[in-house]
Design brief:
two-stranded antiparallel sheet; alpha/beta; 11% strand; elongated; Rossmann fold
């Protein structure tokens, strides 16, 4: 449910921004209709199309609408601002190198200001939508954390900060391992985990206790999956490495590295190829088309 909701939210945000951009273009063009001559209609139409393309392409390349971006209001707003500034630069490049001098400067200035202001409003609308759905029980995913330790406390903090429709119900831990007050209730001991999960309609269990620490975790994992309760293990890698790492698999062997290789992903290679073709086409059409004849004279 959480992943499905994130996809719906991503599509909603994309549609909201495109509706905003095209509404600003339409309203501005309508308001300035008396100053637009009939022979400049094609120029305004081209500007309309280019404005949409130059917003979508950088947004997807910079992953503005990716899950990691939209789950944090601050990160999403910051990334949106970056794409908006890039959008302005690309628009100005397009106007300069395409020699679109027929388009009214007031129209260009108005669309840029209007779209920027609208984006700010959209982001606060997103914040309202995010907070509204975060409280809706119909899409709420209930989770338990197995164990109470530093990893469990850090995981609980991440749930509070980043999750949209995930509700942490509490911790599962044996009483003799609890030596401090907790922000969430200690619901039961480990032996009653599955029973508690079924009674409280839990969708996912995150275990900060590894099978090597407690052999019962294996059986609990298998029984949970039979009951359609997702069981995930959160290992504490800080014992081996103290900085953020990237994990990938070679067969069934986990391999840790300090950074990922983006171009190893097929999707990223396609994006890079698309960007290369776009930039090359832009340079050929709008720069080399007039520069080569000029140098040849």
């Amino acid at each position: 449910m959480n992943r499905q909701f994130e996809r719906y939210l991503q599509m909603t945000l994309i549609i909201m921004d495109l509706l905003l951009l095209n509404s600003v273009l339409f309203i501005t063009q309508y308001a300035l209709a008396k100053t637009i001559h009939a022979d400049t209609t094609d120029s305004y139409f081209n500007y309309w199309v280019v404005a949409n393309v130059l917003w979508l392409v950088p947004s997807f390349i910079l992953r503005t609408y990716a899950s990691k971006s939209i789950l944090s209001f601050e990160h999403f707003t910051k990334r949106s601002t970056q794409v908006f500034m890039l959008w302005i630069i690309l628009i100005l490049f397009y106007l300069f190198f395409s020699f679109e001098f027929k388009i009214s400067r007031i129209f260009i200035f108005s669309t840029i200001i209007g779209f920027g202001f609208g984006l700010m409003v959209n982001r606060f609308l997103y914040l309202g939508i995010r907070n509204y759905f975060k409280k809706k029980d119909t899409i709420l995913k209930k989770v338990l954390i197995l164990g109470y330790n530093d990893t469990a406390k850090k995981l609980a903090k991440y749930f509070e900060q980043d999750s949209i429709n995930t509700k942490l119900i509490g911790f599962i831990e044996d009483d003799n391992n609890i030596r401090e007050l907790t922000h969430y209730p200690i619901i039961s001991n480990i032996s009653n985990t599955l029973q508690i999960a079924k009674e409280m309609d839990i969708q996912e269990i995150f275990s900060t206790i590894t099978p090597e620490q407690n052999k019962d975790i294996y059986e609990l994992m298998f029984q949970s999956e039979k009951e359609c309760i997702r069981f995930k293990i959160v290992p504490n890698l800080s014992v081996f490495i103290t900085r953020e790492v990237h994990i990938e698999y070679f067969g069934d062997l986990p391999i840790l590295s300090l950074r990922s290789e983006p171009l190893e992903d097929v999707g990223n290679r396609i994006k890079k190829r698309f960007l290369d073709i776009t930039v090359s086409s832009f340079v050929i059409v709008f720069i080399l088309s007039w520069m080569i004849p000029l140098l040849g004279t």
